[in-house]
Amino acid sequence: MDTLSRLEQTIAARRDASPNTSYVAKLQAAGLPQIAQKLGEEATETVIAALSGSREELTREAADLLFHLLVLLGAKDVTLADVLAELDRREGVSGLDEKAARNPQGIAE
Ligand SMILES: N=c1c2ncn([C@@H]3O[C@H](COP(=O)(O)OP(=O)(O)OP(=O)(O)O)[C@@H](O)[C@H]3O)c2ncn1[C@@H]1O[C@H](COP(=O)(O)O)[C@@H](O)[C@H]1O
């Protein structure tokens, strides 16, 4: 099993643990808005690391971001397999072509 799949299982197993002994359980107990806010913070920290941090800092922030994304997805009952299936569905479709099909007149969004 790959790392993200193992992490998804670990998060699912920890969700109902005690918030005193589990960070995942602490986030879950805090509720969806708090989980979403944390994900937003981690996204911002990743952007800052990309723009002004070292390669190592970006790697750490990206790991935090992926971890918190999995916590959020789990809290919403969306699985990693769901997300990967969506990416598979998009495979080979250029983002530019997809956008043009959505907006054939090229109207600025
Ligand atoms: N991969 C992670 C992981 N990555 C990051 N984090 C935590 O995410 C938090 C990141 O928040 P910040 O960087 O903002 O640090 P902070 O200021 O301490 O956080 P806050 O107090 O603001 O919430 C830190 O507490 C990190 O330790 C993680 N916590 C847990 N995991 C995985 O989840 C598993 C279960 O963890 P528990 O639920 O704690 O048992 C672990 O075995 C790991 O595999």
Automatic annotation (TrEMBL):
InterPro entries: HisE (IPR008179), PRib-ATP_PPHydrolase-like (IPR021130)
GO biological process per UniProt: L-histidine biosynthetic process
Source organism of this protein record: Aurantiacibacter aquimixticola
Assigned keywords, A-Z: Amino-acid biosynthesis, ATP-binding, Cytoplasm, Histidine biosynthesis, Hydrolase, Nucleotide-binding
Record-given protein name: Phosphoribosyl-ATP pyrophosphatase
Pfam families xref list: PRA-PH
Top EC class, one word: hydrolase
Superkingdom of origin: Bacteria
Family note: Belongs to the PRA-PH family.
GO cellular component, one term: cytoplasm
Lineage of source species: Bacteria, Pseudomonadati, Pseudomonadota, Alphaproteobacteria, Sphingomonadales
Catalysed reaction equations from the record: 1-(5-phospho-beta-D-ribosyl)-ATP + H2O = 1-(5-phospho-beta-D-ribosyl)-5'-AMP + diphosphate + H(+)
Subcellular location: Cytoplasm
Keyword ATP-binding assigned: yes
Pathway the protein takes part in: Amino-acid biosynthesis; L-histidine biosynthesis; L-histidine from 5-phospho-alpha-D-ribose 1-diphosphate: step 2/9
Cross-referenced PANTHER family: HISTIDINE BIOSYNTHESIS BIFUNCTIONAL PROTEIN, HISTIDINE BIOSYNTHESIS BIFUNCTIONAL PROTEIN HISIE
NCBIfam families given in the database record: histidine_hisI (TIGR03188), PRK00400.1-3 (NF001611), PRK00400.1-5 (NF001613)
GO molecular function, one term: ATP binding
Annotated EC: 3.6.1.31
Record carries keyword Protein biosynthesis: no
